[in-house]
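Homework help thread (please don't just give me the answer)

Our assignment gives two proteins as sequence + structure token strings and asks us to describe the second one. The first is just a warm-up. Here they are:
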Amino acid sequence: MIWGQLGWIVFLAGLPLAPLCGFGLLDPWNAQTAWAVSCVIVLLGVALAHPMKPLPINRPLGWLLVYLGLCWWVRWQTVMVLKQSTSILLLLSLLHVLAGLCFYWVAVMQWDDTLLHRILKAVACVGAVSVAYGYLQWAGLDELFRNYERSDIRRHVVGTVANDSHFGSYLALMIPVFLLQERFRWKLIAAAAFVLLWPCQSAVALVAAVLGAGFVLVARDRRWLWAAIPFALIGAIWLWMEPHALNPHGRFQTWGQFLDLANRHLIRGMGQGWVAAFSTTITDMDHPLARWKHLHNEYLQILIELGVIGLVLVGWGILDAMRRWWRLTKTPLVITLGAIGVVFFALSSLNFVMHLWQLSSFGL
């Protein structure tokens, strides 16, 4: 089983480095997808050859899979059979759903506390390298990734994900992982990652990082709760005084316009990949919904694409995961996983972390 354990470490720790393996043929985001799907295929094969334990009961995931499968099959019949055309976005949605399902299946068969500690230690080591690279970018010394977006800004901090907002989200997710490690230098690295959020200019990543770090501190020692309350009040006052901090590029207004378009199909949704497909139909680049391939709100996108039914099933799954976590003994590892969940759910409200493997792997 050593090959399966090694495969998980290479897979998850290697995700931030996947763009370097694109050899200039793939952009950083497609390179992550290629890396992730390839690793999941290999891990699935190893798991089938050497199964370890049966799958636990997961009713929310089971019913969500039934709903997604039926929705996808109906769209397949409509697009591929009746219209005699091919939808790349429809096939991509199927690919990612199957890859995520296989990820879950193999993980619950193979993971235990020891392996998870090893995975998070390897992820932390690569994360430390990413933090150092971010500071090089802040100093204007990057020549690999700063030209993907905003090439006119020399000191653009984008990490290896080539986007400042996504890199900020990655740092926010990494801070609980850094805090899990025992030696003091990891606390310094967590502090360095927190400082690096400033040039990323992502308010939601900053808020999520504070929530994650605060969750770790309070869970380990309840006395930190008295310090957390003033910080929460200060944060609430700041958001009240700066309402546009969490609304860059007019996201709130865009959400309303998308809801108006989909309000007649909110029960079963517009279909998987509808938001990205709709953006391709807009030829006028001055249109307010042009270039909006993601809504920057995963819950709203689930509502629009999968409807109320899909959102209820996802919410059921989240509540079930929270219930399972609450019943566990609160070891440092369990607290860290809870903090990662808090950060991930916070980021999902103003970013599309489920659409990028480097970020969605934390949620999985």
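The one we have to describe:
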Amino acid sequence: MDKQLEEKKEPQKINRQIRLLVIIILVCLVIIGPMTLWRQSNTAKGYFMAGELFYRMKWYDMAEEAYHKAVELDTGYPKVHYKRGLVLHEMGFYGDAINEYKRELDVVPVYTDTNDNLALIYANIGEAYYMNGASLASSGDETGSITMYNEALIACNKALSLNASFLPAYSLLGKLHHTSGMLDEAVKDYSKILELSNDEGVLVEGYYRLGIIYASRGDNKMAIRHLKKALEINTYFPPALYEIGKIYQKEEALDSAINVWRKAVHYEPDFIEAHYELANIYVRQGWYKDAQREYLVTIRLCEKVNNKRITPLLSGAYANLGTLYYYENGEKDKGINCWKKAVEIDSSNERAKENIKKVSKSNGTEREKI
């Protein structure tokens, strides 16, 4: 009987070995493939293919360089300006992304004349203008942000003129209306998305955006209802969990906020904002070691991502970590160094600057609340 059992196990063992070998080969192809294309590319097509692989692997710096090489060899190569725009967009260089999208508009008629392709480019131009506007608004440049939002609206309307049912344009329109305080219009935009699409991903995004709008109105009950609808479709959607956590935090339901934010970072370990908010709420609970750990994770993730959008979070994490080091751990030099780093990253971080000034005057006898 033992011999029969061994005979049955042997084919299973061989199958497992074959599967393992296939996995190893695939991993090698994923890692070595882009490198081989990168080294052997002498044509626009070769560099473009390398850029595509780097982009899928989220190696944005290398993808941008590969697309740039392709442009140098053939400025009219199909979709290369568009793809380079996407990479620059991901990296937070919205102005450069807009320029690349616009260059693509000059090339599009050469390889396609479909309205959907043109609408997609205009929608991405609008999205880049919107993100640029949001970045300017966060830095206090209200005039510049309004200009960017107006340009985003123009691009969005152009996309809709090409395709009146183009969902990405309605999504952008919803964000623009939301940002400008036209909440009723934003609700209509996202409701239109839910009406036009049966795609689960689009529905999740629609319910999620509606949840954010209701939260900004102060209607937490409706907000949570819509955010939970998004989670009913996709349980593993960390942004919805993050927004629910923010609502719980406002309602002082701190344990509930912690639970959903922990779930968010479990599903998406690189979720910078959720790690940062967890750190802040741990400080409120007096769980300083946990807070320190989350600030360090936030810093590590921010420094790994080349994106201007997260500059305030990175600076804030250093500032708050400095306060923990200085006052809770008694590691004064480390605390001061963190505050200095926070100011170096974002010169508008007044709290970090005030902390440095305060301890230099008081010799560290005053405490600073995070």
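TA reply:
I won't write it for you, but here's a hint about the kind of observation we're looking for: The first helix runs from residue 2 to 40.
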